[in-house]
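Troubleshooting log. The previous structure file for this entry was overwritten by mistake, so regenerating from the original sequence record. Sequence copied from the archived sheet and checked twice against the printout by T.R.
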Amino acid sequence: MKKRLIIFIIIILSISLLSACGMADRSAEDVGTDEYGSTGNIEPAYNYDKAEGVSVDMEDSVGSSVQYLTTTESTINNQQKIIKNGSATMEVTDYDSAFSDLEALISDSGYIQNSNIWKTPRYIDGEKIMLTNANLTIRLEASRFGGFFSDLASIGLVVNQTTGTDDISYMYYDTEARIELKEDEKTRLEQYLTEVDDANVYFEIQSRITEVLYEIEQLKGNILRWDDQVEYSTIQLTINEIGPDDESTLVEPKGFFGSIWENLVDGVSFLGDAIIFLAGAIPALLLLAAGVVLIVKLSKRKKKKKE
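Regenerated output below.
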């Protein structure tokens, strides 16, 4: 009896195992292809990393990115990219002479990029003269930036000046690293383009190559613009020509005794103006006094007649 029971259990287990294997085979066949002949595990529209003849090592890609970051950091530490900008306002008594001196000052290390010049009329002793004013944009080699403002004082009176710097090192070298990554992507896309037969995939890859080329050109344009700004500093210079009787806007500090002397001079000047005023007003005052006396006498005479 026990032997029959054991044999029956073995037969049931065998039948169950064979049924499970059959179902697994049918599932594999169903997933293998659909009615259009494509596999059940659908791949992306294009994946050039898995194309025949194109091998991609993920460790190499990650290593390249790490190498870019490491190179960028070390480059920043070794060579900073600094943009220098400044502005100044100066006063001169002869604009033409000052402008010639300025051109000689920057002739070997810079140039005037933009200029806006206008004339202002002034009347001195009834004579009309035209004073020149100018706003100039000067591009100057960065190495000459510091000494330029000192040399400017030899041309005219520098009323005010400002300077500033902008460190773009990280942005600059990060952009260079991005250009290398984009060029590597373009190379892989072009390589995969020669491997594909599907027209849709071909046009998708071609469209992506165009996008990558546009991105590379934009990044390279930023690099060129930054190179120009780093190599040549930008200075905004305002020149104002003043007349012979104009006072400079720059007020020199007067100390304690200088202030006392200035107040004394102002007091004497006021007293002198008062004396001059009184001297000029004496004839009018005499006439006014004579009129008052005459009116008083006439009033007294009328009063006596009435009495």
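Residues 39-243 form one domain. Archived copy saved in two places this time.
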